[in-house]
Amino acid sequence: MRKLAFIVLIFILAACSTKKQELKTGAWLGVIKMDSTSEKLDVPFNFDVVNEGGRIALQVKNADEKIYIDEVQLKGDTLLAKFPTFTSELQAIVGDSLKGYYYPKGEVAGVRYRFYALKGEKDRFPWFTGKPVFNISGRWWFIEDPGKPDSMVNVAELKQDGAKVVGTILNPYGDYRYLEGKVAGNMFFFSKNDGAQTIIIRGEIADSNSMVNGIISGSPRWISSWKAIRDDNAKLPEPESLVHVRKGYSTFKFEGIDVNGNKVTSLDERFKGKVLAVLAGGSWCPNCLDEGRFYKSMHQKYHNKGFEVVSLCFEDKTFAAAKPKIERFAKSIGSNYTFLYVAPRGRVQRDSVLYPLEGKMAYPTSMIIDRTGKIRKVETGFSGPGTGEHYAKFAKETEDFIKGLLKESK
């Protein structure tokens, strides 16, 4: 109890300090402690502090992904930083290290994890220094909660260079985006923090073809076991096989409220005679961000030829609460296509709005509709650029499909 009281006193004294501390530029290693009693759920991530003309910014790095955080304030000796797109925030006392809290849904939501950061540390897992015994590059069956009724069969794609490992894990509904870690001895460590998800993956490499005793966690509520089996031919079902148009339906009508509070419907002039991509997702969904960025590029290339995009956003219970999140999401994507608030987040609401579809739907789910209003393509889930060749294949096939529809007459 005395030790706990002392720690609390230190935090209070630090919080009450008005002396402005200098936040040193360069490389830092941040650690989010999702379980304050154990290090097994610690999520490390790399970031740089940069000074741009006297203005401080952070750049979070997950493998090839770089997340630029420009909403940064220094109030006395306290650092306040808000991630772009999503609502997560960092608050920490500045010194030779950083100590404070990470709020995964923003401070207003109340949930927080302890956070600290070390200056000058570039290794993502510096506590594990053993020389790699195995090279795990390749494709693996990655089985979450093996032997349980809700077991999920995923595919891990990994690239190892020395001790460093990058890659991702794909499931039938998307991917875990950019993951980075290392092999130390016969142990494997993987993590990410992109502002939407904080994920830690760790396990034991039993031999060159199997990994066992794994743990994957994205929150104290989500802690799953896993095992992995090497298989160069591991492949998930095609997204088109998971969801389809209901018998008796061929078209889709929608309505929602844009960020200016105006009612928008599928019957509006802006959509008539156009090839239309309808994206069902939300500002809280990292795979929806990747999907939105892809369709932004399509919108920029083909808008003048008759291609439109509308994002149907499933958010908070009210438009007023959802509006700033949708605006933040749209700004992060950098697109000027249409974003609509349509319903609160939830399976029942989603299925009601997407009434022509049935199957194993997830967020995001998309439809491509031709100039006559007929649904021509349906997909659920999205595998983004972190999946490499999967994304490249999807991007080419989808762009070719859009170009083909644009050539068709009304």
3D architecture notes:
There is one protein chain. By secondary structure, the protein is of the alpha+beta class. The chain folds into 3 domains: 2-119, Lipocalin; 138-230, Lipocalin (Beta Barrel), CATH 2.40.128; 239-407, Glutaredoxin, CATH 3.40.30.10. The chain is 18% helix and 43% strand. The chain has 5 helices and 27 strands. Helix 2 (286-302) links the parallel strand 22 (275-281) and strand 23. Residues 1-18 have low confidence and may be disordered.
Descriptors:
Lipocalin, 3 domains, Glutaredoxin, 9-stranded antiparallel sheet, disordered N terminus, 410 residues, alpha+beta, 8-stranded antiparallel β-barrel, globular
The percent of residues in helical segments reads 10-25%
- For the record, the CATH architecture of the largest domain stands as 3-Layer(aba) Sandwich
What is the fold-level CATH name, i.e. the topology of the largest domain?
Answer: Glutaredoxin
Supply Rg.
23 Å
Question: How many strands, which pairing sense, and closed or not: the largest β-sheet?
Answer: 9 strands, antiparallel
Number of E-type strands: 27
The mean pLDDT is 91
Uncertain segments of ≥5 residues (pLDDT<50)? 1-18
Envelope shape = globular
Strand content range: 35-45%
Q: Structural class given helices, strands, pairing?
A: alpha+beta
Domain module count: 3
Distance between the termini: 75 Å
Spell out the CATH superfamily of the largest domain: Glutaredoxin
Within the largest sheet, what's the order of strands?
Answer: 4-3-2-1-9-8-7-6-5
Top-tier CATH class of the largest domain: Alpha Beta
Count of DSSP-assigned helices: 5
